[in-house]
Amino acid sequence: MLHLNGLGKRFGDQWILRDLNLQVREGECVALLGPSGCGKSTALRLIAGLERQDEGSIELDGARLDTIPAERRRIAMVFQSYALFPHLSVRENLNLGLKIRGVAPAQRQQRINSVLDTVRLREMAVRRPQQLSGGQRQRVALARALLRDPRVYLLDEPMSNLDAQLRDELRPELRQLILQGSQPVVYVTHDQQEAMALANRIAVLKGGCIEQIGTPEELYKTPASCFVASFIGRPQINLLNIDQQLTIGIRPEDLHFDPEGMPCRLISREWQGASQLLLLDSPRGALRMLCSGDAALGESLSVSWPTRAEHRFDASCGRRLAG
Ligand SMILES: Nc1ncnc2c1ncn2[C@@H]1O[C@H](COP(=O)(O)OP(=O)(O)OP(=O)(O)O)[C@@H](O)[C@H]1O
């Protein structure tokens, strides 16, 4: 188990991470999710030993990890930029780390072949990185991580340089290769869809603090704040300011047409195949609504939602209200 204990980090007099407490079990993938600058990468860099924390400690399987130098932590990190050597072939890129660690040549080739089969790149072994697609390059980077036989995997936005189709292709492979292993995995992303698809639990970070941690379903169904509610789920939740005390969140899929409901005007719509996303102008402000793809619509509509679909938040601090 990887255990982050009250971790804090500051640059100068500015705290970037504050009181970060997180436990990642064997075989569990926890995503750190949050907007740019919230401290996600810094948290990974602390675990990897590339930065030193100012407060708290890091433990792995009950022993201190943060007192061990980075090169001896046995942690594999995968970055969005692949970090491959451009002048070396795929095989040479993979060979390098094993050679540095003193693995015998015959054993090296055997392990490289096996890992190339795993990431389905055996035929590409003689190519250089620039002769590969982005997805293939990232698979080389994954292969290199696998070869390290690490105690922890740290993934920093590994798919953010790939287009949507390659991401879809790589996601199941990532899940299979790394997430089914027995090591703890920490996965940094600002993409809520990726976090929902890959992680067992998600920690939503805001300004260096954990705003909420839970399974994707828990975060979706009971967001602890307006911030989490807006971050999890697409299309984004509607937040309606009812009065000075109360903000109500309604997911676009919870709205339905109702002749007795709130009168709205159709501003625009995006056809998405099975569904369509409507942008409505209502007396309570703009509303996003998901409805069936074949619904015929006029310019004037009336909508409502079931009370049980309401997420109720304190209007001033944004925290979820009990009940
Ligand atoms: N070496 C440094 N010196 C000073 N400030 C830094 C340093 N490294 C990071 N920061 C600051 O710390 C904050 C958090 O950075 P970090 O890279 O952890 O964010 P992030 O959540 O990973 O963002 P992104 O998604 O954009 O990568 C940012 O405001 C950044 O400018």
Q: Radius of gyration from the CA trace?
A: 23 Å
Bound molecules: adenosine-5'-triphosphate
Number of DSSP-assigned strands: 17
Percentage of residues in strands: 25-35%
CATH superfamily of the largest domain: P-loop containing nucleotide triphosphate hydrolases
Order of helices and strands: EEEHEEEHHHEHEHEEHHEEEEEEE
Any idea of the CATH topology of the largest domain?
Rossmann fold
Uncertain regions: pLDDT < 50 for 5+ in a row?
none
Number of helices: 8
CATH architecture assignment name of the largest domain: 3-Layer(aba) Sandwich
Which CATH top level class of the largest domain fits?
Alpha Beta
As a percent range, the share of helical residues equals: 25-40%
- Note the gap between the termini: 34 Å
**Biggest beta-sheet profile:** 6 strands, mixed
- Helix/strand/pairing category: alpha+beta
Average pLDDT number: 92
Short structural description:
With 323 residues, this protein is of the alpha+beta class. It has eight helices and 17 strands.
Structure overview:
Helix content is 26%, strand content 34%. The model has no long low-confidence stretch (mean pLDDT 92). It has helices at residues 40-48, 90-100, 105-118, 134-147, 164-179, 192-198, 216-221, 226-231, and strands at residues 2-11, 14-24, 29-33, 55-60, 63-64, 75-79, 152-156, 185-189, 201-206, 209-214, 238-241, 246-250, 256-271, 275-282, 285-292, 300-304, 311-314. It folds into 2 domains: 2-227, Rossmann fold, CATH 3.40.50.300; 235-314, OB fold (Dihydrolipoamide Acetyltransferase, E2P) (Beta Barrel). By secondary structure, the chain is an alpha+beta fold. The protein is built from 8 helices and 17 strands. It binds adenosine-5'-triphosphate. Residues 11, 16, 34, 36-42, 190 line the site of adenosine-5'-triphosphate. Keywords: ATP-binding, Cell membrane, Membrane, Nucleotide-binding, Transport.
